[in-house]
Automatic annotation (TrEMBL):
This is Putative metal-dependent hydrolase. The lineage of its organism: Bacteria, Bacillati, Bacillota, Clostridia, Thermoanaerobacterales. The keyword Hydrolase applies. Keywords: Hydrolase. Pfam families: YgjP-like.
Length: 105
């Protein structure tokens, strides 16, 4: 079987983790007021996540095994890129505001 073939066996636990993670992304998307066109989870060598200009979010499978706090930071970061494509002052301010509100809940 080819590496990465669609018919590769994936443990049920991984599928459940991925579905829960995607639900977390959608909860944050509603809070922030954005709607990703697609959400993908796949192995990535050098990044935790990425956001395309077309609105597709891709998250590293390793993120599923990180702490909830770290996952939330990555999710918020990528979702904010749907509003602001760069890491400028406004982006950083919104990131701090959303995460501070979440931490103080």
């Amino acid at each position: 079987m080819k590496k990465g073939a669609a018919s590769e066996w994936v443990p049920l636990e991984e599928i459940v983790h991925a579905d829960v993670f995607k639900s977390e992304v959608m909860v944050w998307a509603r809070r922030i007021g954005v709607m990703p066109k697609e959400i993908h989870i796949r192995a990535m060598k050098r990044k935790w996540a990425s956001c395309s200009s077309s609105g597709r979010l891709t998250f590293n499978t390793e993120l599923l095994h990180q702490s909830a706090d770290f996952r939330t930071e990555v999710i918020v970061h990528e979702l904010l890129h749907l509003k602001i494509p760069n890491h400028g002052t406004l982006f950083r301010a919104l990131t701090r505001a959303y995460l501070a509100r979440w931490r103080n809940r």
